# Entry
Amino acid sequence: MLKSMETVIEVKNLSKVFYGKKVNGESKEIWALNDISFQVNKGEIFGLLGPNGAGKTTTIRCISGLLNPTAGAIYVKNENMKYKSSILRKSMGFLTENHGNYESLTVSDNLSFFGSFYELNNLNERIEGVLKELGLFQRKDMKAGKLSKGQKQRLAIARAILHNPEIIFFDEPTAGLDPVAAVNLRDLIKNLKRKDRTIFINTHNLEEAQKLCSRVAILDEGKIKRMGSPSDLSKELWELQEMVCTLKSNIIPQIEDVLKDIPMVSNYTIEDNRIHFYSTDVNESTPVIVKELVKHGADILEVKRKVHSLEDIYLKLMDNQEIEGS
# Structure
């Protein structure tokens, strides 16, 4: 029997309005979030994607109780944040876009200071444990200001997980990091997930989300455009699936004739020695197509499915939005 997913965060019809300068005596309404709903399951890495100003940080602040929603409801572990935010926040950890470390304090003193807010009985043991987990133990007596950017991010994560939270929020976690530090931080996030933590990531870095997230929601102008796994979103946005068949030599006319006669092939294109064929179900059609090609003399090197990246998905959504709005 399949184990059902346990929901740890549920957002229902959430809206957040800010009021700008008055125009003709009335305050201008800015809808940072406009009736969004989604769920985050226990133990998953969930990504909220979108451009700057889409409402990603506002969403985190509402979920964590730092901002009061204008409308809607937020439940964390089946409890309403409106009534139990102070208790529920203890089960959360946060890595903000700006790390927030006190640079004049040592690594260890930073954690001692922030750890004092959680009334931990074993604070010193926890500090030692997270510093070892994050590879900072040898730098525990170093001033935070002397750390590299990647190490500063690690210190901020150490602070976020010091009280062993069940849910961790990352807001643009690799922003400003060099490629090596970014890769190391992504590996660290994956390791945190293995301890059955739920991880919520805000990012406009689509490559990062592709590598980390099991599901994503794409947010733009305060509204969720699509939500699901990358493969599910791909199926929703592209009616036909694509396979690429590479041959040892250029395509001969009789091979093209074969493709025309296979009912499962909805469309195809040819580029030198590559055939791109499209069908509604490549799992069903590919064996039939390959068998027919080989039967008619095709010398196949490789058959590979075209997988749409999150970047492909995101750009298609934005293109569709521009067409609908024009």
Notes: The two ends are 49 Å apart (CA to CA). Residues 15 and 34 are 5 Å apart (CA to CA).
